[in-house]
Design a protein that fits this description.
By secondary structure, the chain is an alpha+beta fold. The protein has one domain: Alpha-Beta Plaits. Helix content is about 25%, strand content about 35%. The protein contains three helices and six strands, in the order E-H-E-E-E-E-H-E-H.
Length: about 110
Amino acid sequence: MKKIEAFIRPEKLEDIKEIMEELKLNGLSIMQVMGCGNQKGWTEFVRGAEVDYNFLTKLKIELFVTEDQSEAVIAAIIRRAYTGEYGDGKIFVSDIQDAVRIRTGERGEDAIK
């Protein structure tokens, strides 16, 4: 099993949700986060003073998939989240040892299907 964490632009959320349907995935967590990277943020003038906004709003998406689904999910996220500009985001992939569905006690891949 794999854990996929993707940091994307907020306006790309609907595109990512379509991936869930396309690939018949079950379960997605979304968190609003702030961060900085190559995009750097922006500068505004507030009451005559220059203010740097270094942290930009992003969405963090977490999903758990089977080993054989992971490459298709990663490719789909890249395809849907891509704009070609700084700030498109990043994807992190981790191995998951086990999962347990609390309601039924199912373990492993059965717990994430």
